[in-house]
Amino acid sequence: MLHFTCRASQVTDAVRVPSVEAKIKILSDNRTAGHHYYLSDRMEAGLVLTGTEVKAAKDGKIQLKDAFGEVSANEAWLVNAHIAQYSHGNRMNHEPARRRKLLLHRSEITKLQETTRVKGLTVVPTKLYLKNGRIKIELAIGKGKKLHDKRESEREREMKDEARAAMGRRNRD
Hints:
Elements: H1 8-16, E1 24-29, H2 32-36, E2 37-47, H3 51-58, E3 62-63, E4 68-72, E5 75-79, E6 82-83, E7 100-103, H4 106-117, E8 122-131, E9 134-144, H5 147-172
Antiparallel strand pairs: 1-8, 2-7, 2-9, 3-6, 4-5, 5-7, 8-9
């Protein structure tokens, strides 16, 4: 019969380890993506960035509004993401609107390639965040909404807000 002993310090060390979720800081959020697209199948990808891009992104000087993902030559790219130039950068500062390579597994790239080419869907970045010291981006597969779909979504949102306000007034009385 085997007996395992553990010291009290080993038990408390396991309790002190912070969770991974506590180490996420959102740097940029693409709120218009939910308004313009039906979003599904979200995935996390890394980004290939230069030093001044990382510093500018950590300062929150990034815009994902017009950005989209594309797959070409078996590589995934982030296009039209605008990262402003770093304020303390010198002549080696980066170009704000260049294409940036996405770091994904081969199976994820082929999945994106199939959905964009065969089904005609779009790869939309939804948020850019800092996770354990690395900058990550959340991508979603999006299908474009028509104008009447946007109006319907707006109507549903207004109805929910009115119901929530009515419940709040009722609870106060």
